[in-house]
């Protein structure tokens, strides 16, 4: 009887979710026949977390919770990127009110994901720096697919400091020494290295295999009394959530002050238009024509939008070390970076 009700509910959810996912959403939710919700992140190009995307993730987590779905797997619809982390556009020249709302939304998503009553697992099917790593780390189990992808906390390479609650989470997952080394040096881990320090729990051949392995983890709880599982999880995770709840405003203010610091802004603009994970921001500290060059690329991108190849422009600044600075109002200087759409 109970089984029949659960099955019926899953069938209803499956059709309901299909309806939701036709609304051009950035998250595709499918509830499979085992009653597991698969959340596919699909915000082009790289699943970076803008405020709207975070709000959608927050609603998706509510959907899983409110419909009493027992487990969720977080993954990406893209073949090479799980998530590029926070959207640098939210960090570059931020409006104070918007940035604070953005950060508050991130805190809220983290508390919902980390403190979810349902079982959570991440199938990490591509690059997963910074905020991407945060989302995966907030789940109870992580499976990463093998390949040339990396995962890690590269905040310091962007001139940023990860929030304390993220540092605590990593310190409680891998050992303190590895966490300190990884955070301070912006170390990115290959899947094999990540497994060695237990940043992830398993390696998979591909996305299907990663999802199958996440499901195998979820299945383990068939043998465990649900209330015992939930209460144990809450006892383990509750104090960290409470700590953030009590310090949300200070946390937001601290991050905002950090983000608006001129050094952070220099790196943010570089990050926006160059090849990020491997970038060395040291090359743009202090006055530098290259810095002006990259700033101008950003300006042209703002003015011309999709017509302008911002990354190509930044790469050209780097290649020619700022010797050819684009002028957005001079066609000849920007024509190499204009595309035909
Ligand atoms: C607020 C401070 C508190 C501290 C917390 C910080 C946490 C963070 O998450 S900060 C963000 C950290 N993220 C990164 O450093 C990753 C940056 N991106 C990459 O390394 C790469 O893009 C990638 C490895 C994820 C993917 O590489 P791939 O070669 O496939 O794609 P790209 O050509 O590099 O990028 C395509 C496209 O996407 C734009 N983009 C990439 N990352 C971001 C991002 N985080 N935010 C916004 N936009 C991003 C990139 O500029 C390209 O755009 P165009 O096609 O328009 O040039």
Q: How is the topology of this model organized?
A:
Elements (H helix, E strand, L loop, with lengths): L1 H19 L6 E5 L4 E6 L9 H16 L4 E6 L11 H4 L4 H19 L4 E6 L3 E2 L1 H8 L2 E5 L5 E2 L11 H8 L4 H10 L2 E2 L1 H7 L4 E3 L2 H13 L6 H35 L1 H11 L16 H16 L5 H10 L11 H4 L7
Parallel strand pairs: 2-3, 3-4, 4-6, 5-7, 6-9
Antiparallel strand pairs: 1-2, 7-8
Helix pairs in contact: 2-4, 4-10, 6-10, 11-12, 12-13
The site of ligand LG6FSS7D has 30 residues, from helix 3, helix 10, helix 11 and helix 13.
Task: Describe the protein in words.
The structure is a single chain. By secondary structure, the protein is of the alpha/beta class. The protein has 14 helices and 9 strands. It has helices at 2-20, 51-66, 88-91, 96-114, 131-138, 164-171, 176-185, 191-197, 207-219, 226-260, 262-272, 289-304, 310-319, 331-334, and strands spanning 27-31, 36-41, 71-76, 119-124, 128-129, 141-145, 151-152, 188-189, 202-204. The strands form 2 sheets. A 6-stranded mixed sheet has the order 1-2-3-4-6-9, with helices on both faces. Helix 2 (51-66) links the parallel strand 2 (36-41) and strand 3. Helix 6 packs across helix 10 (226-260). It is globular and about 70 Å long. The termini are far apart. It binds ligand LG6FSS7D. The site of ligand LG6FSS7D has 30 residues, from helix 3, helix 10, helix 11 and helix 13.
Spatial order of the strands forming the largest sheet: 1-2-3-4-6-9
**What is the molecular shape?**
globular
Total number of helices: 14
Q: Name the bound molecules.
A: ligand LG6FSS7D
Number of β-strand runs: 9
Structural class: alpha/beta
What fraction, in percent, of the residue positions are helical?
Answer: 40-55%
Question: C-alpha Rg, in Å?
Answer: 21 Å
Ranges with pLDDT <50 over ≥5 residues? 1-12, 18-22, 278-286
Described by strand count, sense and barrel closure, the largest sheet is:
6 strands, mixed
Q: Averaging pLDDT over every residue, what do you get?
A: 88
Span between termini: 57 Å
